[in-house]
Amino acid sequence: DADVTQTPRNRITKTGKRIMLECSQTKGHDRMYWYRQDPGLGLRLIYYSFDVKDINKGEISDGYSVSRQAQAKFSLSLESAIPNQTALYFCATSDSGQGSDTQYFGPGTRLTVL
Amino acid sequence: QKEVEQDPGPLSVPEGAIVSLNCTYSNSAFQYFMWYRQYSRKGPELLMYTYSSGNKEDGRFTAQVDKSSKYISLFIRDSQPSDSATYLCAMSAPYTGGGNKLTFGTGTQLKVEL
């Protein structure tokens, strides 16, 4: 079974709709992240959480919100989706006990906003 | 200027060739240097990471870091069609207050032809 899972894997929605993307992990890591990937722009950090009570904005947090429901669960919400939020979204985890803080990624959610 | 620059390719090589993938960077605070492989419609998968200047080898893969030139490379020996993927370099610098921020290159698309 995958260590980092994301649901849904694909989603098509309309402008203005509220969308939630979910991430779960069985790696036992304390840190979790949300990224989006766009062609030519690479991976950009939306939000990150170093533990259940810690939430931090990344470089492109506008239009997004997150919730860390448990150490193993981190969800990303688009309150009112817009077409330029069409992208691949990835959840990642890391272990604060590792000096490198190496991040491990889920399989991604392909989101299309019409 | 981006903090991390990576040639997007695409790079096409025959099976068995030696492949060289490169990134340059401008931020002297970067401490860890990583290479991820991403197959189409999958999440990035960690290949290797290094902490200091020098070489690190893992099977057919060698990662090289030159901090004085702010230049990192990934070499793939005896390339195989299964190596066809997008390769992302990533570099981490510490956040104030703990943890590390990863900055990604945009990725180089590699195709190994039979």
Short characterization:
The complex is a heterodimer of chains A (114) and B (114). Chain A is an all-beta fold.
Q: Uncertain segments of chain B of ≥5 residues (pLDDT<50)?
A: none
Shape of chain A: globular
**Order of helices and strands of chain A, N to C?**
EEEEEEEEEEE
- Helix- and strand-based class of chain A? mainly beta
Instruction: Tell me the fraction of residues in β-strands of chain A, as a range.
Output: over 45%
Uncertain residue ranges of chain A: none
Largest sheet of chain B: 6 strands, mixed
Distance between the termini of chain A: 33 Å
Using the CA coordinates, give the radius of gyration of chain A: 13 Å
Quaternary structure type: heterodimer
| Annotation, overall tally of beta strands of chain B | 11
What is the helix content of chain A?
A: under 10%
Radius of gyration of chain B: 14 Å
Report the span from N to C terminus of chain B.
37 Å
What does the model show?
- The complex is a heterodimer of chains A (114) and B (114).
- In chain A, the strands form two sheets. In chain A, strands 2, 4, 5, 6, 9, 10 and 11 form a seven-stranded mixed beta sheet that branches. Chain A has a four-stranded antiparallel beta sheet with strand order 1-3-8-7, with no helix packed on it.
- Chain A is globular.
- Chain A is built from no helices and eleven strands.
- Chain A is mostly beta strands and 114 residues long.
- With 114 residues, chain B is mainly beta.
- Chain B is built from no helices and eleven strands.
- Chain B is globular and about 50 Å long.
